[in-house]
Amino acid sequence: MSTALVLAGWLLWTALGSALAARLISNIPPRVGTLALLLTLQALGLPALVLLVRGARWLYGIPLGELATMGRMLLVCITAPVLFCPIAGGLFGLCWAYRRTPDADPSSSRPLAIYLGEALGAAAGGIVFYFVMLRLATALTTAVVVALFLLVVSGWLLWRYRSHASRGSVRLVWALATIVTLAMAVGGRDLEEWSRGWQWGEHLAAARDTPYHNIAVVQQTEQVTVFTNGLWLLTQPDPATAELAVHMALLQHPDPRQVLLLGGGLAGHVEEALKHPGVEWVDYVEQDPELIAFSEGFLSAATRESLRDGRVRIQRQDAGTFLRQTDRDYDVILMHVGDPINAQMNRFYTEEFFRRLGQHLRPGGILTFSVPGGGDMVGPSHARLLGSLHKTLLQVFPQVRVLPGERARFFAALEEGSLALDPIVLAYRIGERGLELVHLREDTLQDLMSPSKLDYLDSILGELGDSPVNRQLSPICYFHGIRLWAAQWHPSLGRWIDRAAAIQPLHLHLGVGTVGVLVTLFFWLGRTRYRAAVGTSVFVQGAAGMVLQVVLILSFQILAGFAYLQLALIIAFFMAGLAAGTLGITVIRRSWQQESRAVSWLAGLQVGVTAFPLLLLVFLSPVSQELREGLSVAAASWVFAAVSFVAGVLGGSHFSLAALASTAAGARLERTGGYLYAVDLAGAAAGAFAAGLLLLPLYGVASTLVLLSLLSLICLLAVLRRPGSA
Question: Is the whole model's pTM more than 0.85, yes or no?
Fold first, then answer.
């Protein structure tokens, strides 16, 4: 959801800048100095944006390692982009107007070169970031490098067109900005350390960006805490948590020999598992290959020693990929992969993933994990999360048991009677195996497995028997995580989300269809509102394009286990598709005898825009799941990027035709681009917000794609009425 809010804030500010430029274009003289000034301000704004985000915890009072409240998250997402995005949007609107032809032809497509250049630049930036900067530089270094590039371009403009009466004040601003940016480049290492200190506090020991995480290690006296992507991952040493997480599972099995750890090895779980005398090997899976190497030096000697034990095999790959490739089976599988509060973590708690885990359990095998449980009194939000997880596990495992607590611990077995639910039996096994445990004793077990506590939680789960099953493309537990977080922040927000959750997908589609009929009647009855229909179509296409990007990123994340690295490639190929679509329309337009052809072409393209979400649904359906999973991660990266490219081609063609159709219908050429670009970005912002907060987590991928197709169909009906028709 934070990604959706960041995208929404970014796009809205850019839309505002573009709309403002279109509004003021008649009062802004077309001087090169104006463009150079905006480029210079962009150069200052980009590093400042990174520094502001890094200092957000200190500025807005967000405790270290905690999720930001909705208010603070919105504040960061609204304030940070203001340093960069309005200028970017204003540049587009101004360049579009400056590109207009001096003749009276209102339908010239020369300004489309601006949209083409913007798309090509975005694609090139994404590809350079993906292949070069992400692997070699930090975010701040990347921002400084881009700032220097912008200053070179603006300086070249000031020098190349120095005869165009650009004011000396612009040159002064450029000189000062260059001095500041060069100072940041020269003192880059110190600035990096200082800004990381703002982000993580005075006890920061080390920080690093990887293709998977931002890793930060905070050290206070003998205690080390590791954060990934701003959230708590582990604290070391923490023997109480490690003992409970590992031994409660291994004691369930009468003779555990083969153990699989999905995460948790750095938290001491490997060390605890090896204490059981019968354990022959432990497979420890950690996705980020740099996480272990980076954090190992800060861990306890016992944990480092356990990772080098001959019985331990460290698998540096995604858990899903490992399970698809390995042929080993296990007596106990322990998951310590994070809570299902976002799309990345939710995939570990789906029916599909549980089924794959079950395929790697030996007879009598046990699966265990924990999630936020709400303590002794389980509230409605926690209950819904536990109910969905319980229902999902029962789709695969005949026997499921949940122990209540601040962390509700799930145990699942493929055979009835495999779970040892008697604390006396577990206490006997502790003595039988010679385990010297400090925090997990018979009295602790009696409290954890108190019959009254178990009966209380069982009664709650029994009332939630109709809870929806959590699936890969219907990530309802992700939605429960949002609802849990929202309810903790503000009860009214939680109630609003509860009301939204009560809307069934069928009712949503019927409601949208009804609104669509009214919208179509509005555009078809009375006087022609063609340009308004085109603007509506651009808004919807902007939203659809952004939602499609989120769907592709989510789907790739489910398949490969990471998204940060792929996000740059998917968006870069989408922007390349925008450029290709714009270029294609520019070439095709040369053969038109009448500019009104743009109206017919826009309606025809709207048919393809309507059909594309349904075609994507076929690609992502369970029918093609085996085909997708048969791809290597590298191959899948390019397949998803290619699909994104096709979506971009549709988006670029649609925007170009919309601009040409609007001018053919009488819109002022110099303002058309700025306004439509603002509308396009506003739609993308709405799509990012709706997809991340509600549509995907609540309704899933299938319903979301059907909804996009339905909205595009409404736009198709609206633009079928030609401008000037009776």
Answer: no
Task: Tell me the pLDDT band of 105, cut-offs 50, 70 and 90.
Answer: very low
Per residue in 311-329, is it b (16+ CB within 10 Å) or e — as a string?
ebebbebbbbbbbeeeeee
Q: What is d(CA 494, CA 475) in angstroms, rounded to the nearest whole number?
A: 18
Interval 458-476 mean pLDDT: 84
Kindly give, in sequence order, each residue whose CB lies less than 8 Å from that of residue 669, ignoring residues fewer than 6 positions away. 100, 106, 107, 108, 111, 663
H helices present in 308-410, as ranges: 319-325, 343-346, 351-359, 380-394
Domains recognised in the chain with CATH numbers: 2-186+503-719 (1.20.1250), 237-481 (3.40.50.150)
- Write down the residue that tokens 């997809």 correspond to: 691
For residue 577, pLDDT over 90 is answered with yes
> Strand order in 204-209's β-sheet?
204-209, 214-220, 223-228, 231-236
- How far apart are the C-alpha atoms of 285 and 269, rounded to whole Å? 12
For residue 623, what pLDDT is reported? 60
Nearest CA among 671, 665, 392, 654 for reference residue 541? 654
User: What integer best gives the mean pLDDT of the chain?
Assistant: 85
Using DSSP's 3-state secondary structure scheme, residue 441 falls into coil
Predicted pLDDT at 644: 92
Q: Tokens 């030096």 — which residue?
A: 297
Give the integer Cα–Cα distance in Å for 601 and 590.
Answer: 14
The 10s digit of each residue's pLDDT in 502-560 is: 788 888 888 888 988 898 888 888 777 888 899 999 999 999 998 998 888 878 877 76
Instruction: Report the run of H or E that residue 206 belongs to, with start and end.
Output: strand 204-209
CA distances from 117 to 120, 123, 254, 682 (A): 5, 10, 66, 20
SS3 226: strand
In the numeric block, the tokens 């190992």 are attached to 296
